[in-house]
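thread: overnight batch results

M.L. [08:02]
morning all. the overnight job finished for the chain we discussed friday. pasting input first so we're all looking at the same thing
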Amino acid sequence: MTLNEQISYLTKGTIDVIPLEELKAKLGRASETGRKLRVKAGFDPTAPDLHVGHTVLIRKMRHFQQLGHDVIFLIGSFTAMIGDPTGRNSTRPPLTREQIEANAETYKTQIFKLLDPEKTIIEFNGSWMNAFTPEDFIRLTAKATIAQMLERDDFARRYSSGVPISVHELLYPLVQGYDSVALRANVELGGTDQKFNLLMAREIQRSYGVEPQAIMTTPLLEGLDGVNKMSKSLNNYIGITESPEDIYGKAMSISDELMWRYYELLTDLTLDEISKLKNDAETGKRHPRDVKSELAKKIVADFHSQAEADRAESEFIRRFREHQAPSDIDSRSIKAPAGKIKLVDLLLQTDLAPSKAEARRLISQGGVKLNGEKIADVVYEIDTGIVDKAQIQVGKLRFLKIIFE
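M.L. [08:03]
and the structure it wrote out:
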């Protein structure tokens, strides 16, 4: 690629590139000298699994990797004990070292669904931060002022509202900045909410006599609701370790408008290619549902395989367009009393409902089918003397074959 083509490829889907001219210069020097850029992105292991919102950054790392540069996946084993204050209205509860280590192990396997394991550098910032002496911390904290910290929107809001800010939270951007010193980072990637921390890292590098990194920010991906940031706590996420069927189904549930955002941030298609797809959908040349299916399959293929993506599509068509049962329904054998068993009790016994009250609600609202027939009678009973098996469907997604013993 020419330099301009590299810039176009790398900046697709980004919000800020600061400074753009510095990034161009770094890329130009790398091309001339053959010396790879060191591109850093940090992730605090605060939860065991990643969702596709996290992969917006990971995909950008892959773009640098594809251009031959060194990408550093930094696991914040030290910063996770501080807790990133970004966007927080209160102090984060600290994680134990055991939680951090367990979560970090899962990250190390999940990122290689997108990154080349042979070309990815994994670092833990505890490697150097745990070796810091009190004098080292004093020197680091001298690199910034309280006034600079209060320029952060979240700190400023909390301070003006009288919400406590713990002293250790002020260390977070300083430690993140020192990470860039320790790693000799030329470029750092982060979400738009990390802009303050990324800019602070440039200042920390300067104060330690290191050439400042260029920074690139990516947008925060909206969740399935199309409103809030993708988050497990809001249950609006697509987990990268979920089954192909669940990933495909969740992707198909997003709005047609949000689809284009996902195409831009979760695929490697160029903006021109995405624009053509959008035009085809808007002019009726292609059905938006089919374009969305292509997106869903691309996401599944990233984290499983193309064959699994094709299978997930076929299963989705069976269940939601042709209203057929899944091809691989789980089965369970249960000991049934002689005579009859109440459907309410069966739902509870097979964990298809968490309580009898919920089982009654599901039945009364038409959410339960027995052998393909909707049951609306909350006192309905199954005669186990007549039938030895039954297929139960709860809602659109849950199916179970019951074998009565």
